[in-house]
What we know:
10 helices, 8-stranded parallel sheet, 249 residues, alpha/beta, single chain, globular, TIM Barrel
Amino acid sequence: xxxxxxxxxxxxxxxxxxxxxxxxxxxxxxxxxxxxxxxxxxxxxxxxxxxxxxxxxxxxxxxxxxxxxxxxxxxxxxxxxxxxxxxxxxxxxxxxxxxxxxxxxxxxxxxxxxxxxxxxxxxxxxxxxxxxxxxxxxxxxxxxxxxxxxxxxxxxxxxxxxxxxxxxxxxxxxxxxxxxxxxxxxxxxxxxxxxxxxxxxxxxxxxxxxxxxxxxxxxxxxxxxxxxxxxxxxxxxxxxxxxxxxxxx
Length: 249
């Protein structure tokens, strides 16, 4: 059985004033050894959060594909490692939409992060119009094909399915819809990397919270969650960690 993995994505939130929340989340995660937990924080908070989190991994929300150079405002994988990061998110739907990131760019970022020893959470997901047009599975599978590194395996890569229309809206797909899309992701992984696909965890991301976590985490092929707003405080995030632990029994 794949270990449940719950990662928080603080997005453009968090200063040193929130380090107490990092400590509280890390302390709670330490009491749940049957699951993996992590927080992905803004670049400016990585070093401080890594100190505060102890054994719980701290990650970045993006990484540049180049090792160094004239890339104003960007951060390389080596810089992230030096700051204390253990993983990085690539291809988040907000970056696909707001920064016009392509599948090839996401592939390059994932490869660059892996080269430096970082774990990678690679995000895929459809828009509302794509789902309404019954194209969700095709869109998500195409994103995987475009952005999955050839040497991908579960020792360093995790996929996260984000229905883009559910992020921050309070709307979630039904368990049946989640199960169908996660199964489609697993099939595409198997097509691309064979038996190694069995070890790749697939997270669900999109308005997952303490109230719906147990039901969603019980769905087949849902190996954890990528959590946005509900990861900003221990009060909201710890119940999700506990639901993941309960589903692992």
